[in-house]
């Protein structure tokens, strides 16, 4: 869950994406309903100084992940190498699809693997939820795309 919180704290890089280069992907209502029913949608409790409901106007994760701009993750608390080594750079997320009713979003994530010097990619889904004491949706509850394994 921490990795998705860090994603919400990432730096937005302007440049955006156009409709020409957005991969069109859609999910059926059944897929969304199945994932919604099996995804933890209650907000977590964090003990960070920035976890303060008075700051929620500046912590709108839904606005952030649906901004229709690609962004680079400047800071993150996860590694893609199973040994814990940080072998990735240039991590970029681009929104592919969103559902305003369920607060669901699908991103294409790409990164440079510094060991192989190859750009790798995968899809990641998020449900944007509110943490305890918030009315703003400030937490990204992420899963590997189209699975029920929460991260």
UniProtKB/TrEMBL annotation:
Alphabetized UniProt keyword annotations: Signal
Organism superkingdom: Eukaryota
GO molecular function, one term: amine binding
GO terms under biological process: symbiont-mediated perturbation of host defenses
Pfam families: His_binding
SUPFAM superfamilies linked: Lipocalins
Gene3D superfamilies in alphabetical order: 2.40.128.20
Signal peptide: 1-18
Keyword field contains Signal: yes
InterPro entries cross-referenced by the UniProt entry: Calycin, Tick_his-bd
Name of protein: Putative salivary lipocalin
């Amino acid at each position: 869950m921490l990795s998705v919180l860090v994603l919400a704290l990432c730096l937005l890089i302007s440049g955006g994406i156009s409709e020409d280069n957005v991969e069109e992907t859609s999910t059926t209502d059944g897929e969304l309903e199945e994932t919604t029913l099996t995804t933890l949608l209650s907000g977590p409790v964090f003990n960070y100084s920035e976890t303060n409901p008075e700051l929620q106007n500046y912590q709108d994760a839904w606005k952030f992940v649906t901004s229709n701009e690609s962004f680079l993750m400047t800071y993150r608390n996860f590694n893609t190498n199973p040994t814990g080594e940080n072998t990735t750079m240039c991590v970029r997320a681009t929104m592919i699809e969103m559902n305003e009713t369920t607060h669901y979003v699908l991103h294409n994530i790409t990164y440079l693997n510094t060991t192989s010097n190859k750009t790798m990619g995968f899809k990641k889904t998020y449900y944007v939820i509110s943490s305890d004491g918030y009315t703003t949706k400030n937490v990204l509850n992420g899963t590997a795309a189209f699975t029920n394994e929460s991260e």
